[in-house]
Amino acid sequence: MQDVTRSPSRQVGDDRQPTRTPLFLFATGIENSYPTIQNGRVRRDQMEECGHYRLWERDFDLLEELDVRFLRYGPPLHRTFLGQGRYDWEFADLTFARLKERDTVPIVDLCHFGVPDWIGNFQNPDFPALFAEYAGAFARRFPWVQLYTPVNEMFICATFSAATGYWNEQLKSDQGFVTALKHLVRANVLAMHAILEERPDAIFIQSESTEYFHAEHPQAIKPAEIQNARRFLSLDLNYGRPVNSEMHEFLLDNGMTREEYHFFLDSNLRHHCIMGNDFYHTNEHRVDPGGQIRPAGEVFGYDEITRQYHDRYGLPVMHTETNFDQGPEGDEAVDWLWKQWANVLRVRNNRVPIVGFTWYSLTDQIDWDVALREQRGRVNPRGLYDLDRNIRPVGKAYKRLLSQWREVLPTQSVCLFVPVVLPSEYDEPMAVRRREGWRRYYRSEMKVKKANR
Q1: Is 106 strand, coil or helix?
Q2: Could you state a single Gene Ontology molecular function term (predicted)?
Q3: Quick one: CA dihedral 276, 277, 279, 283, positive or negative?
Q4: What is the DSSP letter of 428?
């Protein structure tokens, strides 16, 4: 599927730059999780553990070796947001300047599983407004950035922080989960509004884990149904879709007020969004009669589960995360890449508008086999490159995949594509006019919503 189409050569004397219109978002990412464990005493900063702070320039070189133009990436919130109105932009200034110079398009991830120590954790009711302030400040400092994932995997973050007790507040309660979830989603919505004030043609690619729960016994049908309703909560709230009656009672019984619930119904920005679906072999689960959950492996696969989410929200889709360890045979990750790409093509052939694909991440990771909850220092060999920045077989396979599919139109219509403005195009007259048009639309939209409240 074609990544970049170049315009014909300009006439002599025409000082405009060639316009390049991205059609399909082949992407990777820099793993930048930073939750805390051990009651906040230990910060699991994957950018530090995997060497990106030292080797960021080399990592950007690797993107060019792969010919990947889209990067899921974000500055570390805990190092950048020092206090209300206080920021340390040094690392972000260096890295984003180089991305702009290289004309690489970042999909900016502003909160990835953790908050600064001074905020505490996701139970803090001040977090949404504080985070929106940070998002607006980032958008003002880097106005050429257009694509955002304000809060990564809200459902997983709330679950691991407040339902399973892995990270951050390390709670194991329904009330803790609902509190974390409502704060995470509210932060995401407020951040979208803050970003649109600065970049009115911003596009939000909400990377979220797509799950399914299989009943393994007739008495497990009801517990599985509850889990299959619960999996939609973050996106229902984010996109302003009314939850089902059972989930409505669950939210209100565990601390969400009617006013908070109606905020989500009234404040959504779904038409500015692409639904990012993350899928791993761990995303499907078996539920026993007692409601206990264990891994199911791949049963339905990405195609079927993505169809369920698309039927619910009706938004364009992007496969925003997947990976698999390079196992003892050396080709396990390559086979998984092939399988995921086959699913992407099946999604497309089933007439679901799918606009991108991501192998996550660029390099190997540390301790994700135990969800970062223990400091084992174990390298997970699932990157396109290892931690010495040597390409893995899956990296070579991904590079081949890109080269083979570049000439295939990724959507059903030439009228359907993501209107990305490349960094080099930011100041072009067409891009400026488009932003002004979107600014007028956004302000008109806010007036209408305000009048209808």
Answers
A1: strand
A2: hydrolase activity, hydrolyzing O-glycosyl compounds
A3: positive
A4: S
**Residue 260 dihedral angles phi and psi, to the nearest 5°:** -65, -45
Predicted pLDDT at 18: 37
- Name the class of domain 23-452: alpha beta
DSSP string, 188-232: HHHHHHHHHHH-TT-EEEEEEE--EEEESSGGGHHHHHHHHHHTT
**Alpha-carbon distance 252 to 180, whole Å?**
14
Q: Are strands 70-73 and 81-83 parallel, antiparallel or unpaired?
A: unpaired
Buried/exposed 202-222: b ≥16 CB within 10 Å, e otherwise:
bbbbbbbbbbbbbbbeeebee
| DSSP H or E run through 3 | none
Calculate Rg over the CA atoms of the chain: 21
Q: How many CA atoms lie within 13 A of 36 on its CB side?
A: 20
Q: How far apart are CA 372 and CA 168, in angstroms?
A: 11
Beta bridge partners of 254: none
Beta carbons of 378 and 366 less than 8 angstroms apart:
yes
Residues, the chain: 453
Who contacts 95 (Cβ-Cβ below 8 Å, separation ≥6)? 56, 60, 73, 75
Cβ atoms of residues 427 and 364 within 8 Å = no
Residues paired with 166 in a beta bridge: none
Average pLDDT for runs of 10 along the chain of length 453: 33 37 84 98 98 98 97 98 98 98 98 98 98 98 98 98 98 98 98 97 97 97 97 98 97 98 95 97 97 96 97 97 97 98 94 94 98 98 98 98 78 70 95 94 87 78
Written as six digits, the tokens of 238 are 């984010």
* Residues 59 and 386: beta-carbon distance below 8 Å: no
The pLDDT assigned to 23 comes to 73
Beta bridge partners of 105: 70
* pTM score: 0.94
Helical H segments across 285-328, by residue range: 302-313
Rounded-to-integer distance, Cα 266 and Cα 43, Å: 36
Going by C-beta distance under 8 Å and a sequence separation of 6 or more, which residues neighbour residue 294? 285, 286, 288
Q: How far is 242 from 240, CA to CA, in rounded Å?
A: 6
Task: Give the list of residues 6+ apart from residue 40 with CB closer than 8 angstroms, or none.
Answer: 117, 120, 121, 168
What secondary structure letter does DSSP report for 368? G
Tokens of 155: 């459902």
CA–CA dist 182, 175 (Å, integer): 11
